[in-house]
Amino acid sequence: MNNFDFIIIGAGSAGCVLADKLSACGNYQICLLEAGPKDNHWSIHMPLGVIELMKDKVLNWQFNSAPEATQNNRQIFNPRGKTLGGSSSVNAMLYVRGQKEDYDHWAALGNEGWSFNDVLPYFKSTQHQERGKSDLHGIDGPLNVADSCSKPPVHDDFILSAKQAGFPLNDDFNGKEQEGVGYYQVTQINGQRCSAAKAFLTPHLARPNLTVITDAHVQKLLIDENKVATGVRYKTKGKCHNIFAKKEVLLSAGAFNSPQVLMLSGIGAKAELEKHDIPLVHELIGVGQNLQDHPDTVVVNHHKRSDLLALRPKAAWWAFKQALKYYQQKRSGILTSVVAESGGFIKSKPNLSRPDLQLHFIPAAFDDHGRNLKMLFNYGVSIHTCLLRPKSRGSVTLYGNKASLHPKITLNMLADEDDQKNMIQAVKIARSILAQPPLCDNNGQEIFPGSSTQSDEEILAFLKNKANTIYHPVGTCKMGNDELAVVDSELKVHGIKSLRVIDASIMPTLISGNTNAPTIMIAAKIADAILADYA
Q: Is the pTM of this model over 0.70?
């Protein structure tokens, strides 16, 4: 079969939701294409497997940026999920919506229907909140939201130390106020990952009107002479196939791959396409522009506690006993850990109206998001601090005209001077928390940035050598009506019929937090709009 009503490109957080909602009524034939394999590897479903997933070349695209001029020409690591569930199958499982003001800002930019009051029903309808129903939480959705089954005691130390440093406590970052420190809620069910695939796709794979094709790498969109998207060309097992959409093609490949697919299909800036001998189908100069991500830094300390994630004898024995809980006590203990169980949202300056920094506390000496396992030979703790609304903007362009090439990612991180100042302050705040009891009672020497790094100039040099992102890329197919806009408020691509982009790339500005829950919301909202269009 090569004719469908809707073709969805990408089985990530958005694609899984679209596949579920559009196939549920039974009236339409749906095809879901995913470049990666099925999501049956153990590391996906066991939460602590997130450490392994950062290194996995099969389930993770493992993108690297081009050499970054603002970061001493370093290439910055950008992991993305490449399996059913997309990045929701490889992420740290934190359920965060962002701030009310984020969505009200989208609406103020001219995107009708995207205020917080407009999107809240979709956050609620997609969620099953284990704590129960409330004005801000739903219980009837497929995405399970739970309290963590693993809370090593050092997380309590962090929360108490943050309180000692002057930051308020908060037991629900998705409640009436986001500000404060505490425990995150996670997308898990019974101590296992609840990815978008597990929530929205896997239960419905038997639907006769839903076709899921894995290991299907999209080469380009098929667009006719009237600028109508008619189908998709994809490659699997070395052979190319064309499939056709009677109604619409829905591009949900993410903030890096969605603009790449558009450009490979002749949609983008004329000058960029000409560089790679791609015939221009429709000029949209904003394709791949407006890239935003949360810049992140980490302060790491030696620590005397042994109930930490470390490759040391006492820690290994503690971890072994914890691991037994996973199998003997209904999946609890360290194997259910998302690593960053605690954290929070704080203000870099007291006079701000809302938080502009996010904290992730790690009970391990991680300096590079867990990829440098040599660090685990130390007993240590780490505080990640990221800037929620950076001013710096990057881009996604092409290395060439073949889909097999990675997209060319330029983050341009910390190019803006205000971003630099705020991240310097973030390092100072992380240090101020580590200097408070009870954390300080067990702290040894600082590993990163190190005691010799004290002045603003020295901290900035450290940031340019070590900063990363927290893996929340958005904005490269932005929603709006200005010259850089790629889609309208219904996420229809400007100038091309029967084509929408539905994923985090449409966000005009970053939300203040992790991006998985907002991406699921976006897909649920637009799925309803699509169904209404064809009712």
A: yes
